[in-house]
Design brief:
Strand content: 5-15%
Bound molecules: flavin mononucleotide
CATH architecture: Alpha-Beta Barrel
Number of strands: 12
Shape: globular
Mean pLDDT: 98
CATH topology: TIM Barrel
Radius of gyration: 19 Å
Number of helices: 12
Order of helices and strands: HEEEEHEHEHEHHEHEHHEHEHEH
Structural class: alpha/beta
CATH class: Alpha Beta
Low-confidence stretches: none
Helix content: 40-55%
Length: 338
């Protein structure tokens, strides 16, 4: 197995080891005001949305995780199957490995084979050669491209990148690629200055991927001979980074630490167009297979529709109008940062 494939398999094992479904995070410190008399009726049909011009059945999706190793291939096949059955979007894990190891293409292609017509999003790092990105997009018939920014993860890895001058590469990708481009973090959040810089350089979509769920400093620390656990607390909480994206008036997705349908509702109420879920879905698949994950997503759709009615709303577009209030520690961060 190559070093890159081995790393992906280690990430998978450690993401499972550190998984904590009940982990407290910023969603717990954000509250939505609920009317006792909402005058609404539960209607699951209101969840349908358009993502990059295509119909999807829900405002949430499976976010980037796997590809580039044997275990990843099996997972991508299952995720493709579930995404197809549920008609929700699927982002695959980083395909940058394909620039050097073309034999790993299969581990991504399996998802498209299972989900020929669904919304499929390819993910790369900013330094992936444009020729490789073009090829991956073409092979997978991708609908959008995610570029991940992951400075903390890189410095937590002894073998990680040490040069973070990425803007020119992102601009070059923007010019060369004729697909929607989403800039995402990997669980440490996007700050407002970076969102602004990317916005003025032509980036239209953002996935805030804040802290509160999977923590790549913790994962990399477990792979590192020296102790870099101090990096674990450097993330911007998902609610804070989402408020920053809202202030920048960009189109954004909310992700990082989403555990249940109430967190999804909160992400949509913060102005997210879609909400991304990674490890909670992965661990459901690992524990209960694709049938379990499929059932979980069915349940979440029904529960989300019920919550929307309880909060007095009849469509997705009006969720941003729900009155929000914050616990004091989160309010203090918001007051200082926004
Ligand atoms: C096993 C695993 C692999 C991941 N691989 C990638 C990746 O290749 N590219 C990427 O942008 N994010 C990757 N992520 C990060 C997720 O997309 C997401 O930003 C992060 O896990 C926070 O979301 P969560 O709390 O819902 O897990 C990975 C996450 C997990 C759990």
């Amino acid at each position: 197995m190559s070093i890159r494939s081995e790393r992906k398999e280690e990430h998978l094992k450690l993401a499972q080891m550190f998984f904590n479904k009940e982990k407290y995070n910023s969603f717990d410190q954000l509250h939505l005001l609920r009317p006792a008399l909402p005058e609404t009726k539960v209607d699951p049909t209101i969840l349908g949305s358009k993502m990059f011009g295509q119909n999807v059945s829900a405002p949430f999706f499976i976010n980037a995780m796997t590809g580039g190793s044997a275990a990843s291939k099996q997972i991508n096949q299952a995720l493709g199957q579930v995404a197809q059955q549920q008609n929700i979007a699927l982002a695959l894990g980083s395909a940058s490995i394909l620039a050097k190891e073309t034999d790993q293409l299969d581990s991504f292609m399996v998802a498209r084979a299972e989900d020929p017509d669904g919304v499929l999003i390819v993910n790369v790092n900013p330094e992936t050669p444009i020729s490789a990105i073009k090829q991956i997009i073409q092979e997978l018939n991708a609908d959008a491209l995610q570029i991940h920014l992951n400075t903390i993860q890189e410095i937590a890895m002894p073998e990680g990148d040490r040069d973070f001058r990425w803007l020119d590469s992102i601009k070059a990708i923007r010019t060369a690629i004729d697909l929607p481009i989403i800039i995402k973090e990997v669980g440490f959040g996007l700050d407002q200055t970076s969102i602004h810089l990317l916005k003025v350089n032509g980036i239209e979509y953002f996935d805030v991927a804040g802290s509160g769920g999977t923590n790549f400093a913790q994962i990399e620390n477990a792979r590192n001979a020296s102790d870099v656990s101090y990096l674990e607390d450097l993330g911007l909480p998902t609610v804070v980074t989402a408020l920053m994206a809202w202030q920048e008036q960009v189109k954004f997705f909310v992700s990082g630490g989403v555990r249940n349908p109430l967190d999804i509702l909160k992400g949509l109420a913060l102005g997210g167009k879609f909400v991304g879920i990674s490890n909670v879905f992965l661990q459901e698949y690992i524990q209960n297979g694709s049938t379990g994950l499929d059932q979980l997503i069915t349940n979440w759709k029904n529960e989300l529709a019920a919550l929307i009615a309880v909060y007095g709303k009849k469509d997705l577009a009006s969720l941003v109008q729900i009155k929000k209030y914050y616990d004091l520690p989160l309010k203090a961060q918001i007051d200082q940062l926004l």
